[in-house]
Design goal:
With about 140 residues, the chain is an alpha+beta fold. It has helices at about 35-45, 70-75, 115-135, and strands at about 20-25, 25-30, 55, 60-70, 80-85, 90, 100-105. A hairpin with a 5-residue loop joins strand 3 (about 55) and strand 4.
């Protein structure tokens, strides 16, 4: 049986953003900071790999990647969670949407959303890199 990975939605979350900067339909993939930072590096090095806004929490324990709406329904990457934000009005402007958080890669300086297929690959590579690094100690 042949399987084909694809994004859950063809529209980035900000395609339905209102004039005041609210995106009513996008999901947020949250990962441990170490794996997330490694994935950011992998995505930045990738040829033509688009990366959307990235949020980090105040304690720097987690990173959150904005992904297209619908991603949460099929998200199955171990060690991460994907949360629907539909109807909660995630604000895409320089002010972080959650108190105590900050943008690592702010809206406007990034693509509209990170492709979940690309993010899944980067998170897998990041996990393998971290495992290899920890095994060398």
């Amino acid at each position: 049986m042949e399987t084909r990975e694809s994004s859950q939605s063809d529209e980035p979350c900000t395609s339905r953003a209102s004039a005041d900067g609210y995106a009513s339909a996008c999901d947020l993939v949250t990962v441990p900071a170490r794996q997330g930072l490694e994935a950011v590096d992998i995505l930045r090095r990738g040829a033509g790999e688009a990366m959307g806004p990235v949020l980090h929490d105040g304690g720097c324990a987690t990173l959150g990647f904005l992904v297209p709406a619908g991603t949460a329904a099929g998200w199955d990457v171990p060690g991460s969670t994907c949360t629907e934000t539909d109807g909660r009005g995630l604000r895409l402007n320089p002010v972080p949407p959650v108190e105590g958080s900050a943008w690592l890669l702010p809206p406007g300086g990034a693509d509209l959303a990170t492709d979940p297929v690309v993010l899944r690959r980067a998170l897998g590579e990041a996990a393998r890199t971290i495992e290899a690094a920890d095994g060398c100690q």
